[in-house]
# Entry
Amino acid sequence: MNRINGPWLVTTIAGAVIGAVVVYQLRKHTSGIVDD
# Structure
């Protein structure tokens, strides 16, 4: 189970981090345009 859970966990965390950064940048960019 550890062999499967290991890479899966890393991939999930990496995807979550990337997704969070992208969403954060998009919101920051949009907020910058609407209200600086």
